[in-house]
Structures
1.
Amino acid sequence: MKFFFKPSASSTQSIPESSEIPQHIAVIMDGNGRWARKRFLPRVAGHKRGVEIVRDLVKQCALMDVKFLTLFAFSSENWRRPDDEVSFLMGLFMDALKREVVKLHDNNIRLILIGDRTRFNAELVAQIEASEQLTAQNTGLTLTIAANYGGRWDILQATNLMVKTLPSKQSAFTEEDIAPYLSMHYASEPDLFIRTGGEKRVSNFLLWQLAYTEFYFTDTLWPDFDSKAFNDAIGSYQKRERRFGRTSEQLMAGK
Ligand code: IPE
Ligand code: IPE
Ligand code: MG
């Protein structure tokens, strides 16, 4: 099996090497509410159960030597939900961080949060910063949690920072100019995107970074997404031919 890792490589600027095990997996963990409703439970029971699935998935990815796992936990549009559900999700996030960070650290996992932190309370921001600092030097799996994240927000914040840094640039901006300011600048682009819960949309997740990602949609609800369901996703990925604009014949000729 060939492993290749070049964080800043862009799929539109050069052809990335593909490996049998996706190096970066990005997941929209959807279907918690429906899982709970099916059991006549409050929606939040599904969120609680969902955290356990996250724990199992992180473990499995670390074992498989996946380099980056990026999980969509709360979108910039999820503030539109009822206040009590939003507060429950914030509380759950805080508790999970407090409870899990030492375990992550012990397993050499680096934790990074992407998203707009300005709407979080000070206590949560402090907990996020402490968790990131504790795990910053770890060299195993990088676990990224996207919270109050939106793909458009990401592109806009990066554009604003880029323009601020290069105010007098005469020529047109390039991908290389914007790359360092995008939230996921430290990671290769996702190889595999998984969305559970049956919906077939991107819901404003990593818009820039998904340019050549393989998409996998499953009806399985997030709290039911066990290791068998995850292996099915990996199996589907392994059957894909990643052409990046080329023809099949070129790929077969090794070009
Ligand atoms: C995903 O599950 C979790 C979050 C968006 C925080 P949902 O809460 O969207 O569950 P469904 O889609 O309503 O079933
Ligand atoms: C996407 O799920 C966001 C997260 C999983 C955090 P949603 O349930 O919010 O997406 P939509 O509203 O169905 O598109
Ligand atoms: Mg949903």
2.
Amino acid sequence: MLNSDIVKLLNEQVNKELYSAYLYLDMANYYESRNLGGFANWFVIQAQEERDHAMLFRQYILNNGEEQILMQIDAPDVTYADYKDPLVKAFEHEQYVTASIHNIYDAALKVKDFRTVQFLDWFVKEQGEEEKNADDNVKKFELFGSDPKGLFMLDNEMKARIYSAPSLILD
Ligand code: FEO
């Protein structure tokens, strides 16, 4: 049994991860409609990862005998100024998710819920990688994105991204 405040935060995190998947699909759609299929591929895979994150939080809640409550997922309400803009917004979004996970971590520590702290350790590390990848995309775009050949090569690089299942497995 977990502290009810922690369960509430974990359920909210399921919703935030599913919203992240929605947001990244929206970004994929933006690039797809502009014939940048590599960028679209990168964001479709990112959306798959977010769904995985949601499923991990869901499973953790259920494994602890708690109720998993699905909440409404908001439609992404964003517009993109140019090709670089989704990359910047994705980086900002990852920073928001990191803060959210750190907030649960902090709350779990305060109530001595060390099981949840241990579960969240994987996400703390994962967020470090997520932020780095998103920041790398912005930096690469700043270096090469304004040149058509550079944009073509970046799109090809993004096309090469393949999905891999999360290293964390919950039975
Ligand atoms: Fe689930 Fe990109 O954080």
